[in-house]
What we know:
The chain is an alpha+beta fold. Helix content is 51%, strand content 18%. It is built from four helices and six strands; from the N terminus they run E-H-E-E-E-H-E-E-H-H. The chain has helices spanning 17-29, 65-76, 111-146, 149-178; strands at residues 5-8, 32-36, 42-46, 52-58, 80-84, 89-95. The strands form two sheets. The chain has a three-stranded antiparallel β-sheet with strand order 1-3-2. The protein has a three-stranded antiparallel β-sheet with strand order 4-6-5. Helix 3 (111-146) packs antiparallel against helix 4. It is elongated.
Amino acid sequence: MSQEIRKTHRVFMAWEYKQEEEWLNRMSRSGWQLVKGGCFSQEFVKDDARQYCIRLDYKKMPAGKEADRYIETFEEQGWEHLNTTFNDWHYFRKQIKEGEPESAYEIYTDMESVQEMMNRWKGLAYGCSAALLILSIVYIYLYAVSGFMFYWISIGVFLIMLIWLLANTRKMNADRHME
């Protein structure tokens, strides 16, 4: 008996992780169970017999015992680790059981843990912002030296990306304060 598999290519920005969780949970309610999450694609199997709650966590960590302990901590609470993406997003799922309180499906139940996760993401966003700023400065120099118009266009793209990234980081901060 073969399972029906569906691959999707829906992309969410890192600060939209709640929207991604909501979408993955809607997919589960409609019978499509996540088996592999990702930045640029997701893989589901058709299974109407179960429903899962999907949660995401961002945590950069070295391989080895610390990574194993991180996964074990979730498994002790009934979460199944599906996979980790190249950029350190971790996908977890927990089978929904009737009568279980909603709080049983939260991976962060205290504000300190939520803030720690958001700070990890903001660190990544600020690192990317610094890289874009450095690229812009390098390309300004290259343009000054060569006069090649491509550099000027690239500078514009880098600065637009930088503004977009910083604006969305700010939006993420504002959204966090509203919860």
